[in-house]
Amino acid sequence: MQKPSDPKGTDQHAPGAKLDAGKEPMRLILHAMPRALLEVGKVGAYGAAKYRDNGWLKVPDAVPRYTDAMFRHALREGIEARDEESGLLHAAQVAWNALARLELMLQSSNA
Question: What is the pLDDT of residues 19-47, one digit of tens each?
Fold first, then answer.
């Protein structure tokens, strides 16, 4: 693991030092894709209201099931923009399912 360092070379104990060299610049996602992330958040909120907060983390055989859901929404997007039941964009549901499966895959591999 890389030792944290200041990208400007400032000593860590000097005023103004920030040990963030090599860390992910989250602004590249959060500031660049706010609309997309808000839509994905709506999918998460809909699921939490329909089931329970973070219940998706305990679904048996979750990765293949969320993979199937992702593909179903991707196919439906070719027919209609919004899901008939929820009114949410199929594209946002594709993204949510992709993120859910990725999270579960990373948790199970302890990557």
Answer: 777 888 888 899 999 999 999 999 999 99
User: d(Cα 76, Cα 83) in Å, to the nearest integer?
Assistant: 8
Residue 89, beta-bridge partner list? 82
Sign of the torsion formed by the C-alpha atoms of 43, 103, 94 and 59: negative
What is the residue type of 65?
R
pTM over 0.85: no
Over the stretch 40-80, which tens digit does the pLDDT of each residue have?
999 999 999 999 999 999 999 999 999 999 999 999 999 99
Q: How far apart are CA 8 and CA 1, in angstroms?
A: 20
CA 15 to chain centre: 35
3-state secondary structure 50-104: HCCCCHHHHCCCHHHHHHHHHHHHHHHHCCCCECCCCCCEHHHHHHHHHHHHHHH
